[in-house]
Amino acid sequence: MSRILENLEPKAVFRFFEDLTQIPRCSGNEKAVSDYLVNFAKDRNLEVIQDEALNVIIKKPGTRGYENAPTVILQGHMDMVCEKNKDIDHDFSKEPLKLRVEDDFVMATGTTLGADNGIAVAYALAILDSDEIPHPPLEVLITTEEETGMGGANRLDPNNLKGKILINIDSEEEGTLLVSCAGGIRNIISIPIEWNSSPDGYTAYNLRVRGLKGGHSGMEINKERGNSNIILGRILKGISANNDMYIAEISGGAKMNAIPRESDAVILIKDSDKSKIAEEIKEWNRVIGNELKASDPGVKVELETSNSTYVRVFSKETMKKVIAALVLIPNGVQTMSMEIEGLVQSSTNLGVLTTNKDEVLLECAVRSSVKTLKLDIVRKMETLAELLGASSSTSGDYPAWEYRKDSYIREVFVNSYKKLYGKEPIITAIHAGLECGLFAEKFDDLDMISLGPNMYEVHTPNERLSISSTNRVWNYLLDVLKSIK
Questions:
Q1: CA separation for the pair 404, 448 (Å, rounded)
Q2: pLDDT tens profile 215-239
Q3: What's the confidence (pLDDT) of residue 475?
Q4: At 163, phi and psi to the nearest 5?
């Protein structure tokens, strides 16, 4: 295999990272990568545990002089968000990612890169593979299904680990140490579809929202980027208010925890109204373009004749309910923290919109660092569903990770950073969810911290990993491990 990253430093880290990009590992499809990790451990005679959730734990004794040091858990997740541009032909279930290097960045062509969280796995494997890196006893914990509700962490048996210090490598900003995170829950509104036969004298058109940046629904929710599902709802409301219109199909987004970039609807309109609606679409392009000129300058709304024939459409009542849900559903930043400046306290993201045989589904990621506020958002969605004659359900509830006033590992990280860079790191909380919240519930008195190299636009096909930052964070992590005795 021709290796794209072989000349990048640190070589071992990028070698293992490239290996991971060749293995399918979308959330829910982690068997191959889990087995890869098990075989890695066995080939090196390291103790390994693979549980029923396919979580992998690899243990390695401390190096000479560190035999009695406290055991450290190095933690990340093996799954990735699998997003691609619509014009890219890529099967995530079996095809490797197509890597490229541009300046200081590693990227994948037309798809997500999976640096979230493949880089954590690569760091850990490079440490386990080396006989020259000084370190305390290690327990490397690599979990599954983190991106779809933290299923692996939920099913983890804490009896398989003895460490009381955990270093989570699932952050995306060098020089920032995370010490707290939001909790979250998945909420789905299901609107039953009443189907009618397509009316005569109407033509089907594809209505599309394109050109948005998207992003991680926790990390980028405060950047006020456009949500294609919400925008589509606004446009449909406007068109239906001024024209006789039907909907045959509606969809948008691919992952609950990614701000959707592309949404589609098939609408049926009278032939005589085409010119009028085309003018309305021009106006929507002006309106949305103006609103998002700073955050999403590439946004565009498209309308073109469909090549498909649709024999049935939503009833008028169903159409009204679907549009009302898109217009009224809570979305984006809901509350800001009054304790930590600039920190989003609560948010929700309408990540996926789907038309099934009998229902339209609106799938949201709800986040908050305050449990009661998280539940309040869910109650609003439940109330909206009740008013529309729809149903609301939740799953994947995970807790927030609360700040710990006294932390040994935080002190070690701060001292090491000051030694290496002559200044203190940023200590803060994050609105995105980390598995640390679940670990805090499962383990007694677990001292945790989270770090990572610079990554940008994760959960989108523009995801990129900084090469120089990866190297600096690698040296930082090694210095921390060397300091734990």
A1: 9
A2: 999 989 999 999 999 999 999 999 9
A3: 98
A4: -65, 145
Do the domains 185-398 and 11-170+434-483 match in fold? no
Q: Are 413 and 451 in contact (CB under 8 A)?
A: yes
Task: Return the CATH fold of 185-398.
Answer: Alpha-Beta Plaits (3.30.70)
pLDDT digits (tens, 9 = 90+) for 132-145: 999 999 999 999 99
79 catalytic per annotation: yes
Model-wide pTM > 0.85:
no
Q: Which fold has domain 11-170+434-483?
A: Aminopeptidase (3.40.630)
Cβ–Cβ contacts within 10 Å for residue 60, how many? Answer: 21
Q: Where are the domains of the chain?
A: 11-170+434-483, 185-398
Sign of the Cα pseudo-torsion (349, 24, 88, 353, in order):
negative
Catalytic residue among 18, 79, 173, 220: 79
Q: Active site includes 397?
A: no
Token code pair at residue 411: 């002190």
The active-site residue, picked from 19, 116, 145, 146, is 146
